[in-house]
Amino acid sequence: MLLIAGLGNPGLRYARNRHNIGFMALDEVARRHGFGPWRKRMQSDVAEGRIGASKVLCLKPQTYMNHSGRALGEAARYYRMDPGQIVVLHDDLDLAPGKLRVKRGGGNGGHNGLRSIDAHIGRDYWRIRIGIGHPGDKDLVHDYVLKDFAKADGAWIVPLLDAVAEELPRLVAEDREGFMSRVAHLTRPPEPPKPTAKRPDNNAAAPGKKPPGEEA
Q1: Of 19, 33, 90, 111, which one is the catalytic site residue?
Q2: Are 103 and 129 in contact (CB under 8 A)?
Q3: What is the CATH number of the domain that holds 46?
Q4: Neighbour order of strands in the sheet with 100-104
Q5: Are strands 54-61 and 44-51 parallel, antiparallel or unpaired?
Q6: Is 134 a known active-site residue?
Q7: 151 Cβ partners below 8 Å, 6+ apart?
Q8: Angstrom distance (rounded) from CA 80 to CA 65
Q9: How many domains does the chain fold into?
Q10: How high is the pLDDT of residue 196?
């Protein structure tokens, strides 16, 4: 069994915040793979389903971001899961918007949701880091993450969430490099068309002469 948690804050007020991209990604995973209805359990919204041969539990903590570990800790204890069976989807300020990385363990990078999870289950869980960019000044971070994505951000958010959901079976099957590679490929902007060589115009007038048929 695998537990996949998305991080965010509950309620419509926060639904489109940058900090909630973990919730957004998990919603698309559950929708794409036909998971059961969301239910209130273990201080979370929980949906169950299968991806490939694996049973998967999707979990959105309802404890607010800074206490995400309370919900994950309760679920991990209930199902007797070790951190290696847990994947956390979360926003990352240190990655450019639309970039994605998978890693296991490590520091929390100042992310309060991860800090709470570390305190409840340790650090040795998997993280899917989803880049949202940085405002450029650490004093602006709080307001930045709690503001809605701009309308123009949909150009990268929609294909990214689609790609994460579509390629997640690779991650579940432990092909983590393949997962990252495919998501990057599916979200790469199209190459601009190469300029074509201009074919010579045999009917062009010689310098200083009028084209045939043109009146003086």
Answers
A1: 19
A2: yes
A3: 3.40.50.1470
A4: 39-41, 44-51, 54-61, 2-6, 86-92, 126-131, 100-104
A5: antiparallel
A6: no
A7: none
A8: 23
A9: 1
A10: 60
Vertex 23, ends 105 and 31: CA angle to 5°? 115
Q: How many residues does the chain have?
A: 216
Q: Which parts of the chain have pLDDT scores under 50?
A: 210-216
- Residue 72 CB burial class (10 angstroms; 0-12, 13-18, ≥19): buried
Q: Can you tell me which residue has the tokens 């918007």?
A: 97
210 located within any domain: no
SS3 34: coil
Amino acid at 61: P
Assess if residue 173 is contained within a domain: yes
The verdict on residue 59 lying in a domain is yes
Taking the chain, what is the end-to-end CA distance rounded to the nearest angstrom?
85
Structure tokens at 124: 């040795």
Locate tokens 């989807």: which residue? 89
State how far the Cα of 71 lies from the Cα of 9, in Å rounded to an integer: 13
Confirm if 170 and 182 have CB atoms less than 8 A apart. yes
Read off the pLDDT of residues 19-54 as tens digits, 9 standing for 90 and up: 999 999 999 999 999 999 999 999 999 999 999 999
Residue ranges of E strands in the chain: 2-6, 39-41, 44-51, 54-61, 86-92, 100-104, 126-131
Encoding tokens for residue 151? 């309308």
CA atoms within 13 A on the CB side of 71: 29
3-state secondary structure of 80: coil
Range of the domain at 8: 2-187
Does the pTM of the predicted model rise above 0.90?
no
